């Protein structure tokens, strides 16, 4: 037979008579007298099917090709880690191409990449399992042939495959435990769905020229300029946007308020003009409760001396049902503390006309830092109408001196640690503009909005106090414009953590796959036919058809679990003993381990 190799004498003549008859009837080939076994010659397998290439040439590049999914999955997941770290950085991930596309489809693109990492990891796990099973099946003691079926089964069938093997199977426990890895890896597919959904995009700004501005600094000592005052801020409160003050809890889903002291523009600008300059950020947190009438003890418990507490109580009662506020400001543990009593709000109610409860709010201003601030302005075209619309915190720098905030708010409240101020309505049927953020309709104070609204109130007063007492310096602020061709992507903290969990779950599986290939990489004898037997359906079928397995009476009516149970016995793939002495050519067989020798480097096999 042309292209076939056969150790049986005169087989060429028979092959010429009938080329279609490829399989030779079984004969006793054991010349040493071992007639207690039967073997099938693989004359029907040419050198390309049965690993006819020299097994000694298991070159490094061949091993690398087989491990392509392992290395590919590792690289893809490392790229995913780099993307997640960049998305979670303070500056985000800048994409300088297809900005409009990524602006809309970035969550979908990230999710697709994570799913591709998931698929690559699955294929890497199959490669690792095939390498280890191939190693086991070429060992002198051999291994269960059913392990090849486990490797070749789909992800969702592996656990079912392992558990349907006989309880007497020597490979059942190992394969069952191995199937748990695929179950764990399959569960991780839900993580990309949640992680990618937290991705967000923002505009990218480029710097273009500069504009004149005033920056506030904490140099020297604070100085009270006597303006603006509290009543001026009541008028400004009618026109101000919460977004121009910082991140207000009254307007955002946040746990506290971050108020911003931003540069003030002195040049003319167009609507939408944005400048970047130096400023400050501080955290404001308020909690409110109800104070019974004249309860001085309650005020003393709030770190207020009995004399001041008595004065505040009297001032509160003097307002009666008229809207007003009484404040006490002090420093405590590096924070500014403000105790505020409010009258005329009807928030707390009463049990009788003589016993009225009033809201008492405790505000803490802390975490005072230098920062780089971006301010966007709005205007109708006239210089007088230019007003800040949105401020953004670009970066946070070194801690600042919070005593300047203490002095600023104390000065706007009148310069004393204790003060009282009436809060009259400026429009009929409306509450005072400073309290607008405590109300859903600017008509009545709402208890649910009170704390967040008071935080906004002191953000207004804090910014006004900075204008009144901080050092002012003429400066040039950089003007920025939006480049729609670029986009900045960021991810939430929860999404980042879920993404890391997904990455590490895939990394663990890849490392296990690498461990599975170590016995093959360190093996002195060629074992690639065993690996091919484990993962190659065609090669597996050919070898099974030419071994004693074919004598077990397996037919097409058997259920799949029963078929694989018939394969669940120890075999070894290697070289037939009769060809061991031939230095160039050997006969590859799959049989009981005692009848099979190890492959030899440098030999070709048929």
Automatic annotation (TrEMBL):
Keywords annotated in UniProt: Membrane, Transmembrane, Transmembrane helix
Transmembrane annotation, as ranges: 64-85, 97-119, 498-521
Organism superkingdom: Eukaryota
Annotated region (Disordered), positions in chain: 1-22
Name of the molecule in the record: Transmembrane protein
Source organism (scientific name): Boothiomyces macroporosus
């Amino acid at each position: 037979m042309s292209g076939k190799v056969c150790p049986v004498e005169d087989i060429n003549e028979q092959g010429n008579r009938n080329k279609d008859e490829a399989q030779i009837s079984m004969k006793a080939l054991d010349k040493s007298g071992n007639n207690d076994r039967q073997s099938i010659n693989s004359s029907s397998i040419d050198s390309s099917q049965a690993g006819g290439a020299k097994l000694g040439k298991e070159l490094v590049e061949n091993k690398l090709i087989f491990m392509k999914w392992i290395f590919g999955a590792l690289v893809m997941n490392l790229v995913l880690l780099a993307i997640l770290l960049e998305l979670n950085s303070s500056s985000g991930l800048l994409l300088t191409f297809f900005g409009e596309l990524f602006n809309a489809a970035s969550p979908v693109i990230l999710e697709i990449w994570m799913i591709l990492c998931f698929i690559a990891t699955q294929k890497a796990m199959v490669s690792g399992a095939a390498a280890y099973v191939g190693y086991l099946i070429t060992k002198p003691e051999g291994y269960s042939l059913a392990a090849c079926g486990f490797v070749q089964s789909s992800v969702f069938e592996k656990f079912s495959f392992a558990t349907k093997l006989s309880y007497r199977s020597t490979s059942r426990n190992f394969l069952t435990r191995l199937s748990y890895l695929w179950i764990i890896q399959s569960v991780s597919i839900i993580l990309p769905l949640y992680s990618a959904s937290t991705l967000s995009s923002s505009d990218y700004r480029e710097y273009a020229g500069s504009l004149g501005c005033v920056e506030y600094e904490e140099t020297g000592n604070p100085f009270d300029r006597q303006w603006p005052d509290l009543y001026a801020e009541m008028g400004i409160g009618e026109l101000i946007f919460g977004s121009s003050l910082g991140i207000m809890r009254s307007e955002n889903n946040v746990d506290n308020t971050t108020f911003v002291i931003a540069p003030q523009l002195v040049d003319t600008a167009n609507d939408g003009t944005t400048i970047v300059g130096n400023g400050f950020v501080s955290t404001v947190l308020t909690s409110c409760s109800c104070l019974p009438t004249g309860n001085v003890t309650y005020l003393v418990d709030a770190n207020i001396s009995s004399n001041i507490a008595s004065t505040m109580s009297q001032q509160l009662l003097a307002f009666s049902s008229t809207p007003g506020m009484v404040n006490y400001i002090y420093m405590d543990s590096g924070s500014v503390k403000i105790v505020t009593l409010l009258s005329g709000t009807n928030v707390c109610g009463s049990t009788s006309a003589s016993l009225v409860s009033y809201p008492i709010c405790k505000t803490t201003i802390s975490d005072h830092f230098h920062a780089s601030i971006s301010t966007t302005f709005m205007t109708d075209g006239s210089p007088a109408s230019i007003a800040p619309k949105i401020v953004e915190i670009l970066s946070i720098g070194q801690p600042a001196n919070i005593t300047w905030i203490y002095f600023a708010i104390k000065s706007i409240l009148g310069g004393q640690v204790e003060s009282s101020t009436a809060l009259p309505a400026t429009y009929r049927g409306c509450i005072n503009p400073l309290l607008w953020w405590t109300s859903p309709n600017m008509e009545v104070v709402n208890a649910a909005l009170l704390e967040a609204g008071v935080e906004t109130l002191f953000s207004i007063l804090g910014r006004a106090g900075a204008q009144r007492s901080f050092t002012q310096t003429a400066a040039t602020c950089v003007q920025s414009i939006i480049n729609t061709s670029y986009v900045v992507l960021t991810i939430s903290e929860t999404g980042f953590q879920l993404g890391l969990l997904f990455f590490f779950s895939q990394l663990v599986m890849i490392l296990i796959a690498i461990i599975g290939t170590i016995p093959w990489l360190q093996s002195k004898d060629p074992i690639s036919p065993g690996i091919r037997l484990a993962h190659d359906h065609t090669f597996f079928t050919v070898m099974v058809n030419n071994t004693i397995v074919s004598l077990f009476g397996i037919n097409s009516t058997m259920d799949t679990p029963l078929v694989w149970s018939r394969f669940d016995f120890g075999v070894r793939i290697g070289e037939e003993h009769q060809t061991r002495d031939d230095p160039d050519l050997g006969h590859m067989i799959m049989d009981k381990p005692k009848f099979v020798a190890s492959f030899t480097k440098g030999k070709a096999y048929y």
